[in-house]
């Protein structure tokens, strides 16, 4: 992520990111410091696995804090008001689609890249399917080209 790259988030995604940052800064940092302090008490730091592990965890926490701060500095929260009168799929919408290749029905939420989580059925607006669904209307069929075939999805319903 570059310094000027916009981070698209739903309000929910923004809140989760803020909560994670608060947890890392107020709880996790202190936990890491305690682990380091305790590990120092075990003696020689050159052969102290607990100390090395605690320092590694601290580095990961600090790295994640910097990453989140950068993301929040460049955040653009998806404006729900813009979507109200729009009849096409927008970022932040949940879309009920039918995979025409296997007749399977799915509900997917289109979100910014950092919110994407397939286990929660949240797909990135930059993914092939996310790109294809954006700006489509109910009843339309969109096509996603893969290396071996073309997949087709019918937009059944846009849920806001």
TrEMBL record:
GO terms for molecular function: DNA binding; RNA polymerase binding; translation elongation factor activity. Pfam families: GreA_GreB (PF01272), GreA_GreB_N (PF03449). HAMAP family: GreA_GreB. Residues 8-77 form the Transcription elongation factor GreA/GreB N-terminal domain. Belongs to the GreA/GreB family. Keywords: DNA-binding, Elongation factor, Protein biosynthesis, Transcription, Transcription regulation. Necessary for efficient RNA polymerase transcription elongation past template-encoded arresting sites. The arresting sites in DNA have the property of trapping a certain fraction of elongating RNA polymerases that pass through, resulting in locked ternary complexes. Cleavage of the nascent transcript by cleavage factors such as GreA or GreB allows the resumption of elongation from the new 3'terminus. GreA releases sequences of 2 to 3 nucleotides. The lineage of its organism: Bacteria, Bacillati, Bacillota, Tissierellia, Tissierellales. Signal peptide: none annotated. Residues 85-158 form the Transcription elongation factor GreA/GreB C-terminal domain. One of its GO terms (biological process) is regulation of DNA-templated transcription elongation. This is Transcription elongation factor GreA. The gene is greA. Transmembrane segments: none annotated.
